[in-house]
Amino acid sequence: MAIVKPSLAKGTRDFSPSEMIKRNYIFDTLKTVFRKYGYNEIQTPSFENLNTLTGKYGDEGDKLIFKILNSGDYLAKAPDSLFQDKNSNKLIPHISEKALRYDLSVPFARYVVMHQNDIALPFKRFQVQPVWRADRPQRGRYREFYQCDVDVVGSESLLNEAEFVLIYQEAFERFGLKDFNIKINNRKILSGIAEIIGKPELIVDMTVAIDKLDKIGLDGVNKELLERGFTAADLNLLKPIILLEGTNAEKLSSLKSILAESSIGLSGITEIEEVFDYIAKLTGDTALLTRIVDLDITLARGLNYYTGCIFEVKTNEVAMGSIGGGGRYDDLTGMFGLKGLTGVGVSFGADRIYDVLEELNLFPVGKADSTKLLIVNFAKELESYTLGLLHKLRKENIASELYAAPVKLKKQMGYADSKGIPYVLLVGDEEAASGQLSLKNMESGEQVKVTETELIQKLK
């Protein structure tokens, strides 16, 4: 049998112990913030029924869903004619009934509908789990990656939107990020813009184009708008809106004038103002709205999905795409028959946040200590004492290990050094007899004598 050279599937990664410590630091920090704001954790299966996922993300999204082949002889029940047609889309329903989840939102909607009699509304949940997409891998984008979602359903209050801004702020400040920008817009404002230029039916085309302003510039946006059915006169009306500048208050004032004849547009402005008012009341910091929150009229974020306020977060310290985003949706559960249940939620891009913190060297140094103490193994005869000590340390929740074999001291110290273990305990015949143990600080090189009680107090 030929030996297969091991390799990773494209778009996936292994994570070493040191990397997992950093990733868990991100997850634990986010979970702490989510719980602080009253959100509880749920989990859903890694795969769902294929019909649960398909038709929820559009044609392009459906193409990126990883399908799972049926168990056993999955081709046996497929009609022969489909093999001759060579049409995989027609063949899939016959050979695949399940798929890896594409995101956490649709499984969450399915969860709410299935558990609607067991949950109290408003239902506030967070979820930190991997998702899979058959996308083209690139920097900051993988085929297997974690999403960190936090949502509330069953509440129309814009207080939720305001608190999501504060959740973003607190999480990123805990990570040590100093220069980040929380962009906010409202679907109703965008609908109003399409309405006043007389092209309400082209709202998706309009927003898909203007959402690319940062990437392709105004000329590129104009070119795309013309290709999508807009006229030169439409472009003249859109230009001052697309390039709207000033403070948030100044932008809102300009929009009130521009959208004066659009009731839906004015409704969107009112919602933004209410969110800003809540933020000011929650923090007592009116400067916060100028410092990190930016009203961005070009922000779109998948208009077929969102219905109210929308968010996107970027850091200005590293060249990276968005590291968070989300918004208000009015009928997420409607796809499964539960109509009229409004919700709002945001997501954190854990993998991109990892890359940002790594590049900025923002991971806490002390977090690399998985094992806090290594007890050196000098001789088999000393194990009765050292194993008893090890048991006492672990009962005090001090992460400790005894080197498994009495090999050369140099090898044991090298093991401690390679694992980043901060303390080593040397217990020879003399130490075991006297109870005065030798504790070495691996970073400073300092070595002191301690009793068992002093050792436990120091390490706790």
Features:
460 residues, alpha+beta, 8-stranded mixed sheet, 5-stranded mixed sheet, 19 helices, 16 strands, 43% helix, globular
Description of the molecule:
The protein has 460 residues and is an alpha+beta fold. The chain is built from 19 helices and 16 strands. The protein has helices at residues 17-36, 50-53, 58-63, 80-85, 88-95, 105-114, 159-174, 187-196, 203-210, 213-227, 232-242, 248-258, 263-283, 288-291, 350-359, 383-395, 409-419, 429-434, 452-459; strands spanning 40-41, 47-49, 67-69, 96-100, 123-132, 144-153, 180-186, 293-295, 309-315, 324-329, 343-349, 373-375, 400-402, 423-426, 437-441, 447-450. The protein has an eight-stranded mixed beta sheet with strand order 1-5-6-11-10-9-7-8. A five-stranded mixed beta sheet has the order 13-12-14-15-16. Strand 9 and strand 10 form a beta hairpin. Helix 1 crosses helix 15. The protein is globular, with a radius of gyration of 28 Å. The model has no long low-confidence stretch (mean pLDDT 91).
What topology does this entry show?
Elements: H1 17-36, E1 40-41, E2 47-49, H2 50-53, H3 58-63, E3 67-69, H4 80-85, H5 88-95, E4 96-100, H6 105-114, E5 123-132, E6 144-153, H7 159-174, E7 180-186, H8 187-196, H9 203-210, H10 213-227, H11 232-242, H12 248-258, H13 263-283, H14 288-291, E8 293-295, E9 309-315, E10 324-329, E11 343-349, H15 350-359, E12 373-375, H16 383-395, E13 400-402, H17 409-419, E14 423-426, H18 429-434, E15 437-441, E16 447-450, H19 452-459
Parallel strand pairs: 1-5, 7-8, 12-13, 12-14
Antiparallel strand pairs: 2-4, 3-4, 5-6, 6-11, 7-9, 9-10, 10-11, 14-15, 15-16
Helix pairs in contact: 1-7, 1-15, 7-13, 8-13, 9-10
